[in-house]
Amino acid sequence: MRFHILTLFPEMVMQGLHTSIIGRAAERGHISIEAVNIRDYTLDKHGKVDDYTYGGGAGMLMQAQPVYDAYKAVAEQIISEKKPRVIFVTPQGRTFHQGLAQELAREDDLIFLCGHYEGVDERVLEEIVTDEISIGDYVLTGGELPAMVMVDAIARLVPGVLHNTDSAVTESFGDGLLEYPQYSRPEVWHDKRVPQILLSGDHAKVDAWRLEQSLVRTKERRPDLYMAYLERKKG
Ligand code: 9D3
Q1: Which atom of ligand 1 has the smallest separation from the CA of 114?
Q2: How far apart are the C-alpha atoms of 189 and 191, rounded to whole Å?
Q3: Which residue is closest in CA terms to ligand 1's atom 5?
Q4: Which residues contact 163 (CB under 8 A, 6 or more apart)?
Q5: Which pLDDT belongs to residue 116?
Q6: Is the entire prediction scored with pTM above 0.90?
Q7: What is the DSSP string of 148-210?
C-alpha cells in the first residue's frame, strides 16, 4: 500500500507517522508514505495558495490550481492500473470507522487531501475527490491529524505491518466487542487481587470469563455496539 498525502504541512505528517510502528513498517517496505507540499505547485510568485471566497464571508479558501496540480503530479507517478481513491478529509464527510479502514486497506494507493483555511474551492473537489471522510464530531484546526489517524488505522491492517498477525483481528471492534480487563504481575497490588479464574490454568474457563466481561462492558459502555453484536449473532 502506498499512501500519498497532499498537505500544506508535510513535515508534520511525516514526523508523526515515521515515529510510530507505521514508520517501522515503511522502513521494512510493507507500505510507503509520501507527503506532498501543495505549496510547491502554486503558480503564484509569492507562494500563495489561498484567496478570498466569492460571495464574501470571513476567512480564506484553498485555491483549485495548486491542489489540482499537486494531485496530478501524484497521480502521474502511480504505477497501479486501478484509479486511486482520493480522500478529502473534511468535517462534512461521513464518519471514519473500522469497517471503512478494512475496506481501504485493500487498495494499492490512497491519496489524502488535507484542507486548510476555511476550506477548498468546490470545483477541484468535484474533479478529483472520490470519498469525503471525517474522524468525528469535533472541530480541529486542519486535516493533517485526521489524515494521520486514518493512515495509522489503515496501515496496521496491511499484511506484514503488524508482527502479530491475529492481533488485528481479535482486538476491540474486530468482533464488534470491547476488550475484557487484563492483569499482569503482581498477584496483589494496592490490596486488589487478580481475578482468581485467571490463575486457574483452565483455558476454557478463562475464555468464557473474558467473553462475559467483554459482553458486560460493551452493554454498559457502548449499547450501540452491543445491539449490533446481538443482531449479527441472530444472523
Ligand atoms: C469552524 C470552522 N468551520 C466553519 C467555517 C470550517 C472548518 C474548516 C476546517 C472546520 C474545521 C476545519 C479543520 N478540520 C478538518 O479539516 C477536519 C476534521 C475536523 O475538524 N474534525 C473531524 N474530522 C475532520 S477531517 C478534517
Answers
A1: 16
A2: 5
A3: 118
A4: none
A5: 86
A6: yes
A7: HHHHHHHHTTSTTSSSSTTHHHHSTTTSS-PPPP---S-SEETTEEPPGGGGS--HHHHHHHH
